[in-house]
Amino acid sequence: MKIHQMQPAPNSKKSVKRLGRGIGSGHGKTCCKGHKGQWARSGGGVRIGFEGGQKSLLRRIPKRGFDNNWRKVYSIVNLGDFEVFENGSTVNAEALLDMGVLSKVEPYGVKVLGDGKLTKKLTVEAKKFTASAKETLEKLGCTVIEVK
Prior knowledge:
single chain
């Protein structure tokens, strides 16, 4: 296919509705807006969520829940995810990003959980470790470093 042979898909191009161009166009006089009323006026209509003066749905439904501004969000990694690394390598946030184990590192860093099987001896650097993860890593002879 060459650039001069390219054309849009069938029925993908829709012509613009030309308003106020005479009686023969079918869109003349009132321009498809009917007679009078707020919808016929320039700048007419109502804001999003307006329900004609009755109390809006947003205000009728009760508020629920709580958003904790002080929560600490960690990137969670399981021990089984470390199997992609070679024996003796150092595992930290940057290495986890490079290997595709994590898509992003959360503000408070990486937390290691004890789920999964690990067979390799590694050096693991993380902000937090669960008790089971720390125990399993030390049992395997891995070096555990808590980053501050």
